[in-house]
């Protein structure tokens, strides 16, 4: 990646935006110029990048002039308001919200699964939902060997999925409960500290919340399998960072666990974590801050001869959001699907 690119982060001060900034530096993405964009209330702050303090600017109509790439993580309404202005300005936007994921003209990309989809973009590329990304990375290598017929998944989703303020709320509520106080819900409808509850995204008429239907619809689109059967139960749990998932896979023929382990041991983006004697398997505390999706407890479903069970933990902020977006950006650069800037300001 010898050329350099003019990059903007929209939603730079949020949990995912902060991670995007860190990953751009850690992975040495070829940045010619960097803009940090956020709401009016965050304007004026500074954030560090490669030893320099960069100002956070309020996003406006001219924010995307002379920009090649926008990494957006500021929520669906913000993306809908600005994404087409990014494209009109001649840039490509990789959007972390749900605004464009199911738009048939917008590719929904997990680089370990469907990298070629990124080539079809018309200026907007969608980053999938965090739970979908983590599941796709673990299931796709098996699906390639023997197509999955049905997925039943239960998610254990950390506070980080609702942002930095939600993580702080869990910390505050935990202290309050330990001190004998009664915490008042804020970001979440109920206190998450020492508690759990079904995911609080809007409920639909079919009895599944929006988060659960995202896993169905997005997995079908990413896998290119419009008839794939997926049933999800999504739950918020009192974990600060990193989601976990219990996944049951049904195949047409038996899928030996030993074969599944052999495949996943070398699968991109996966780290196999299993010690059956010690009852040691993936945990969110160990997945936090890691790029890989930790997968383990791979076993035969004793209720179905063609069933396979597995357990995973993955960092929701990292692979579930920021890292996936950066990997898409790297893909665009490596395959010349993005035009470079002409001047380099960060040596």
From TrEMBL:
It catalyses: L-aspartate 4-semialdehyde + phosphate + NADP(+) = 4-phospho-L-aspartate + NADPH + H(+). Its EC number is 1.2.1.11. The active site is at 130 (acyl-thioester intermediate), 243 (proton acceptor). GO terms for molecular function: aspartate-semialdehyde dehydrogenase activity. The keyword Oxidoreductase applies. It is an enzyme of class 1 (oxidoreductase). Phosphate binds at residue 101. The keyword Amino-acid biosynthesis applies. Coiled coil: none annotated. Pfam families: Semialdhyde_dh, Semialdhyde_dhC. Pathway: Amino-acid biosynthesis; L-threonine biosynthesis; L-threonine from L-aspartate: step 2/5; Amino-acid biosynthesis; L-lysine biosynthesis via DAP pathway; (S)-tetrahydrodipicolinate from L-aspartate: step 2/4; Amino-acid biosynthesis; L-methionine biosynthesis via de novo pathway; L-homoserine from L-aspartate: step 2/3. It comes from the Bacteria. Keywords: Amino-acid biosynthesis, Diaminopimelate biosynthesis, Lysine biosynthesis, Methionine biosynthesis, NADP, Oxidoreductase, Threonine biosynthesis. Catalyzes the NADPH-dependent formation of L-aspartate-semialdehyde (L-ASA) by the reductive dephosphorylation of L-aspartyl-4-phosphate. Belongs to the aspartate-semialdehyde dehydrogenase family. HAMAP family: ASADH. Homodimer. This is Aspartate-semialdehyde dehydrogenase. It comes from Funiculus sociatus GB2-A5. The gene is asd.
């Amino acid at each position: 990646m010898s050329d350099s690119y003019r990059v903007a982060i929209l939603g730079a001060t949020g949990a995912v935006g902060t991670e995007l900034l860190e990953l751009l530096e850690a992975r040495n993405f070829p940045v010619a110029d960097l803009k940090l964009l956020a709401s009016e209330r965050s304007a004026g702050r500074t954030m560090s990048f490669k030893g320099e303090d960069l100002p956070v600017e309020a996003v406006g109509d001219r924010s995307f002039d002379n920009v090649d790439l926008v990494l957006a993580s500021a929520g669906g309404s913000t993306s809908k308001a600005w994404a087409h202005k990014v494209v009109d300005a001649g840039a490509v936007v990789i959007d972390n919200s749900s605004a464009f994921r199911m738009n048939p003209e917008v590719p929904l990309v997990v680089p370990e699964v469907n990298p070629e989809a990124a080539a079809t973009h018309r200026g907007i590329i969608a980053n999938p939902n965090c739970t979908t990304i983590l599941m796709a990375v673990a299931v796709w290598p098996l699906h390639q060997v023997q197509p999955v017929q049905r997925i039943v998944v239960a998610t254990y989703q950390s506070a980080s999925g609702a942002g930095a303020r939600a993580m702080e709320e869990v910390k505050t509520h935990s202290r309050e409960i330990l001190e004998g106080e009664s915490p008042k819900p804020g970001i979440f409808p109920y206190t998450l500290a020492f508690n759990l509850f079904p995911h609080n995204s809007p409920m639909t008429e079919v009895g599944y919340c929006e988060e659960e239907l995202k896993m169905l619809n997005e997995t079908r689109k990413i896998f290119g399998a419009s008839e794939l059967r997926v049933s999800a139960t999504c739950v918020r749990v009192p974990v600060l960072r990193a989601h976990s998932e219990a996944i049951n896979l049904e195949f047409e023929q038996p899928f030996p666990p030993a074969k599944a382990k052999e495949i996943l041991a070398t699968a991109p983006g996966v780290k196999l974590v299993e010690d059956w004697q010690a009852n040691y398997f993936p945990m969110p505390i160990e997945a936090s801050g890691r790029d890989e999706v930790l997968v383990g407890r791979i076993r035969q479903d004793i209720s179905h001869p063609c069933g396979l069970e597995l357990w995973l933990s993955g960092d929701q902020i990292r692979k579930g959001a920021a890292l996936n977006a950066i990997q898409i950006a790297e893909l665009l650069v490596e395959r010349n699907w993005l035009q470079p800037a002409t001047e380099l300001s960060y040596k």
